[in-house]
Amino acid sequence: MITWKDVMAYTSRPLTPPRRVEKSEAEWKALLTEEEFYITRKKGTERAFTGEYCEAHEPGLYACRCCGTHLFDARVKFESGTGWPSFTQPVEENVIAYHQDRSFGMTRVEVCCLVCDAHLGHVFPDGPEPTGLRYCINSASIRLVAD
After folding, report:
1. What SS3 class is residue 54?
2. What is the DSSP letter of 139?
């Protein structure tokens, strides 16, 4: 189980991905909608409470919209009230990359797919037990797939 201490350590000591997927900007644009491209490849953010999975409760795994890597299990999804799908932990330790984000005059931890570098959202230390983490994820960066 990943803790906030682990998250902070991973910002300076990246994990090794299970595999790598790399494409050119043109290849990503051909695979993604304009919004998906903006969010995943240009580090955009969808408006709160507008994402496809904001209030979803179906079972399954959430995969990276870009490369299909399984990232989060629906069983650890929770209602954070923030307007974005929120999870307490990833399915595997080595599927998420953590980066210090000092944009917009604040310090946060950005989370990306470790396999393809897609921007997913941010992680915060204000989630529920047992991890205390809140992975705040853009719906446009993930896709719900069957278990």
Report:
1. coil
2. G
Residue boundaries of the structural domains of the chain: 4-14+22-145
Instruction: Check: CB of residue 57 under 8 Å from CB of residue 142.
Output: no
Tell me the Ramachandran region of residue 138: left when phi exceeds 0, alpha when psi lies from -120 to 50, beta otherwise.
beta
Token digits of residue 59? 């079972």
Q: Which of 54, 64, 113, 136 is catalytic?
A: 136
> 4-14+22-145, what's its fold?
2.170.150
The CA-to-CA distance between both ends of the chain, in Å, stands at 20
- Predicted structure pTM score: 0.94
Concerning whether 136 is annotated as a catalytic residue, the answer is yes
Kindly report, residue by residue over 42-91, the tens digit of the pLDDT.
Answer: 999 999 999 999 999 999 999 999 999 999 999 999 999 999 999 999 99
